[in-house]
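Tokens as discussed.
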């Protein structure tokens, strides 16, 4: 009986390794599915660590990596597992320890960011890829977009609205320059969203398997902690200081911090709107009007949501949850 119980984790680990390898290979063979499989293939690893232990999860991950390497090549397996395996093992361990969701997502974001930077490091030293290649591609991006506009007929419509070709080129160049400046913020933001999505999927599967007791509160209670506002204030201060003293480094750092905070505050504002809609039931016509406003005035709508999210972080309108919600 003891021998059978000792073999059970190994058998489950072998099954999980095979399942993770199949999901990972599916994304490699069918690239359009890779966005989905990059999320799904680590879920069996998370479940295994929760059900068994971290050691079994590490062994299963190594076996899955070997299988992917055999069928798709060592480099595919190496980069795939560097980018996502650490997150699966980390989430499995934290789920097993019943760590609060906010801390888990924050830790997951750091793990994803580290994995992405390490993948970039390996790309530079193994594949010979350079960040200069990306900057060169961005440099030629306006010409490529203009060529697409000409071939698709969009350029004629743009010119008919009283604009000039030089206006469009200048606008594209400004956009590309901002992309270059905001690359660090984009990288951090991508890491956060990847960690959040993986967390939500993993938690849903664990709850389905009765392996998760802690339940996320409804979206209307998702809220940034009050001290998060200091990050926004710091970014704003750096941006203004850099602009005032003509210090590009400070200005760029401040811009990246503000760029990172904007979707967080907008999400906080959207949760606040959902809270108000639940606390004070809105007529269906009013809900439709709000939805249409946000849909057809997206830049303004996002700005309004971000402002609401900022004020809510300071005022704490949703700190007292509803009973029975």
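Sequence:
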């Amino acid at each position: 009986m003891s021998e059978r119980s000792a073999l059970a984790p190994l058998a489950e680990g072998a099954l999980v390794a095979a399942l993770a390898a199949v999901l990972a290979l599916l994304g490699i063979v069918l690239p359009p599915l890779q966005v989905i499989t990059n999320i799904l293939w680590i879920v069996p690893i998370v479940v295994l660590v929760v059900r068994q232990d971290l050691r079994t999860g590490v062994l299963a991950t190594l076996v899955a990596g070997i299988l992917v390497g055999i069928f798709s090549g060592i480099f595919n397996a190496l980069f795939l597992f560097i980018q996502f395996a650490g997150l699966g093992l980390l989430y499995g361990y934290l789920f097993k320890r019943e760590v609060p969701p906010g801390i888990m997502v924050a830790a997951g974001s750091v793990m994803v960011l580290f994995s992405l930077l390490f993948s970039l490091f390996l790309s530079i030293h193994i594949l010979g890829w350079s960040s200069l290649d990306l900057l060169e591609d961005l440099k030629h991006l306006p010409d490529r977009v203009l060529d697409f506009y000409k071939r698709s007929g969009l350029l004629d419509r743009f010119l008919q609205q009283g604009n000039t070709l030089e206006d469009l080129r200048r606008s594209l160049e400004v956009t590309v320059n901002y992309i270059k400046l905001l690359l660090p913020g984009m990288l951090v933001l991508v890491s956060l969203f990847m960690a959040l999505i993986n967390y939500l999927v993993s938690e849903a599967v664990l709850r389905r398997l009765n392996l998760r007791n802690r339940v996320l509160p409804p979206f209307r209670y998702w809220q940034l902690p009050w001290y998060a506002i200091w990050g926004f204030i710091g970014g704003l201060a750096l941006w203004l200081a850099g602009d005032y003293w003509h210090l590009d480094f400070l200005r760029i750092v401040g811009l990246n911090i503000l760029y990172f905070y904007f979707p967080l505050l907008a999400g906080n504002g959207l949760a606040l709107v959902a809270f108000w809609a639940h606390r004070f039931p809105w007529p269906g016509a009013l809900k439709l009007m709000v939805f249409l406003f946000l849909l057809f005035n997206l830049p303004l709508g996002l700005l309004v949501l971000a402002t609401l999210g900022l004020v809510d972080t300071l005022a704490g309108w949703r700190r007292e949850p509803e009973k029975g919600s």
